[in-house]
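On clarity, I found the account of how folds are encoded harder to follow than it need be. For illustration, here is how one protein appears when written out as sequence plus structure tokens:

:::
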Amino acid sequence: MNEIERPTPNSARAVRAYPVAPAPLLAAIRRAVEKLPRWRIEASEGDEVRAVRTTRLLRFKDDVTARVYPDPEGARVELTSASRLGRGDLGQNPRNLKELLGGLDREVGPPGPSPRD
């Protein structure tokens, strides 16, 4: 099963659970974004971190949002990535989420059980 969904041709969504409390997960998201090339934090308030990822070639900007929710096993994060321009993303938004999930896994370790919708 692919954990990254495509709600529209120019966006992507993923949900993943981690066996850590919400506050440490939010801090790990911020650290992961700060370490990724061409990423920057735009805002971090409450249970949400908003970031911008700039593509290498044409410098397109994609908006990435991470929302953290309490979960019985720790916390879960809902990630969305959306292109600012165009009707399609040529697969960039799913790549954005894979990149952020990889950075997040390096910060907190492997994810917990898959969250139920």
